[in-house]
UniProtKB/TrEMBL annotation, chain A:
Gene name in the database record: cas5d
Pfam families named in the record: Cas_Csc1
Protein name stated in the entry: Type I-D CRISPR-associated protein Cas5/Csc1
InterPro entries xref list: CRISPR-assoc_prot_Csc1
Domain of life of the native organism: Bacteria
NCBIfam families cross-referenced by the UniProt entry: cas_Csc1
From TrEMBL, chain B:
InterPro entries, A to Z: CRISPR-assoc_prot_Cas7/Csc2 (IPR017574)
Full protein name: Type I-D CRISPR-associated protein Cas7/Csc2
Phylogenetic lineage: Bacteria, Bacillati, Cyanobacteriota, Cyanophyceae, Oscillatoriophycideae
Domain of life from the UniProt record: Bacteria
Length: 258, 334
């Protein structure tokens, strides 16, 4: 980690390496679900689309179809994203308006006989007599993998907005979230990135806390604690900045800097 | 064989990293009997959503929704019936045979490789078959019927032996027959045989939604096949374009039941324009589409299906990392 940081420090430039940015709109053609947090048997989606998810969805980096061993628990954001020369901010709901919907999910077996036990679908009918005697055959033990519950999802039709830095061609449709929901991309505006010298600035966009440069001071912000990294909003900061159209963000944003 | 026309967007073998090869299918799903789709449990109303009627017609109407999970689950089950029949499902942990949703996927069968699994921390396979919520063309208000269910006792009356009245008297909603749903299915980095398997599952599946012997019959038809490195527009946009076009077409009255021919013609004239879109490279023409469906029917025919499935099954051999003796009931390698 430490050698990675010094590498980045050497590479740091004040003027943006990319000259252009695109302000884009994201239209949810389908309900979008991320497991942001869990309360009892309900899984909540926060009203934001993380920029790491967007980077993968845009095809800037690929994660394998099959994950084995430690790969299932340890993501490779640093390896996948930190060398990219393009960047995208987390997406925020336009006008702060966002609507949600709830949906029940229920796992069903493909066996003719099945039973629901401790959050687990059981298909071993031969274990039933054993279970009735008070014993707990292994097929009846609780599952750590949710098989029933409720999902709070971002409803179809919600509009998000974000900024893409760098000269990249964007696909018309991407897939995001746990259920690979289709999201349409529309470029609203292309803009040059303007450099602003060190001063105190308010930032209207959402920011990923791991992507901020080291040399800025924070005055205030709101935090959205979601995995894998917290998202900041309403940041007031002092430092160098970039202006893109009406938006001002800290200069030198980059994936996985801290 | 028109599958060749798609070859630049097909993988020659299963690979673990995405390469942006996309095959997309436009599917027309038509109910053949009363059908039940609910997002919540029984007693809840049919799944419907308020959306814009068309892209041009901005009126908001309720449309029936067949959610993505309502499509994929029966289609996977259909394929797995054949895998079970030919002993192509492998043993999962605890010596149980690979099964859906029971926390015991075998991680080795065709279904596990193509549709994916999550095995609670040990490993996971992402699905390469992506569906979308499908919508009815017409407003749901025209497509829902009501039925009162009278549950009779064994003696054939509404009263049991002691004279107590049956309480199982219920009104229930259902989706009428001949309702058209439009759907986009996306296959990522699939091989030719995986394409045949996935499309075969769609064409062979005849029941969806709440399961019962009398309801849920559905007919699926492939109206378009595309190859490219990008996805087609969403099924919602497709259904909206079809609605706009049908409302402008002479001789089409927008009421239930719609003439199937008008629906098919409208869909085809819309999707023919998609070939110019960014990243969509080829569309099979009418003849090639028929050839592809014939090719799939042949591979799934009674005479060929065992050989076809065994051939597809064999392509994953090098990715099955545990020794052969640990897998049970394997088909004899050909
Ligand atoms: Zn399996």
């Amino acid at each position: 980690m430490s050698h990675l940081k010094s590498d980045l420090a050497e590479k740091k430039v004040t003027f943006p390496t990319c000259k252009k940015a695109q302000i884009i709109e994201l239209w949810c053609a389908e309900p979008v679900f991320f497991a942001s947090r869990e309360l009892s048997d309900t899984y909540y989606t926060e009203g934001v689309i993380g920029n790491y998810a967007l980077a993968y969805a845009l095809g800037w980096a690929y994660s394998p179809y099959r994950l084995t061993g430690t790969a299932t628990t340890k993501p490779t954001y640093i390896e996948d994203l930190s060398d990219l020369d393009c960047y995208i901010l987390p997406a925020w709901a336009i006008d702060n308006h966002i609507s949600y919907r709830f949906e029940r999910f229920n796992a069903l077996s493909d066996a003719y006989w099945f039973a629901m036990s401790n959050n687990r679908v059981v298909i071993n009918r031969e274990d039933l007599p054993l279970k009735r005697t008070g014993k707990k055959p292994s097929s009846y033990r609780p599952s750590n993998f949710p098989q029933t519950g409720r999902l709070k999802m971002i409803e179809r039709g919600n509009l998000f907005e974000t900024i893409v830095f760098g000269e990249v061609e964007l696909p018309e449709y991407i897939r995001v979230g746990k259920f690979k929901s289709k999201v349409k991309i529309t470029v609203k505006k292309e803009s040059l990135i303007e450099y602003l010298p060190t001063a105190k600035y308010p930032c209207k966009t959402y920011l990923n806390s791991a992507d901020l440069p080291e040399n800025i001071s924070y005055f205030s912000f709101d935090i959205l604690a979601i995995p894998p990294v917290s998202i900041l909003k309403n940041l007031q900061f002092e430092g160098e900045a970039w202006r893109i159209d009406d938006f001002i963000v800290p200069a030198n944003l980059k994936f996985c800097q801290s | 064989m028109s599958i060749e026309k798609l070859s630049s967007f097909l993988a020659s073998t299963y690979e673990n990293f995405p390469k942006g090869r996309t095959i997309s299918l436009v599917v027309l799903r038509t109910t053949q009997s009363e059908t039940i789709f609910r997002t919540e449990g029984s007693g809840e109303p049919m799944s419907s959503e308020f959306v814009q009627a068309g892209l041009e017609n901005t009126e908001i109407i309720p449309r029936l929704v067949m959610t993505k999970r309502k499509q994929i689950a029966p289609e996977r089950r259909k394929g797995r019936e054949f895998l079970r029949q030919y002993n192509l499902l492998y043993n999962a942990k605890g010596d149980t045979i690979c099964s859906l949703n029971t926390n015991a996927p075998c991680e080795m069968c065709i279904d596990c490789f193509l549709y994916g699994f999550a095995a609670g921390g040990e490993g996971a396979q992402k699905s390469r078959v992506w569906t979308e919520d499908a919508f009815s063309i017409l407003p749901s208000t025209e497509l829902i019927g009501d039925r009162t269910i009278n549950a009779l006792y064994e003696n054939g009356t509404m009263r049991d032996e002691t004279g107590k009245a049956s309480t199982a008297l219920n009104t229930s909603e259902y989706i009428k027959p001949s309702v058209h749903f439009l759907d986009i299915v996306t296959l990522k980095d699939v091989t030719a045989d995986e394409l045949r398997y996935a499309v075969g599952n769609i064409l062979l599946t005849t029941r969806y939604g709440a399961v019962s012997s009398r309801v849920g019959r559905m007919d699926n038809e492939i109206l378009g096949v595309f190859g490219g490195f990008a996805e087609l527009p969403s099924s919602l946009e497709l259904v909206q374009q079809v609605f706009d076009l049908l409302s402008k077409t002479d001789n089409v009255t927008l009421e239930h039941p719609l003439q199937k021919d008008s629906v098919v013609n409208a869909v085809k004239s819309i999707i023919n324009q998609w070939t110019n879109k960014r990243g969509i490279s080829v569309q099979l023409n009418e003849e090639e589409l028929n050839n592809l469906v014939a090719d799939i029917d042949t591979n799934w025919s009674m005479e060929k299906q065992e050989e076809f499935l065994a051939r597809l099954n064999k392509t994953y051999e090098s990715y099955r990392q545990i020794p052969a003796e640990n897998t049970s009931k394997k088909s004899k390698g050909k």
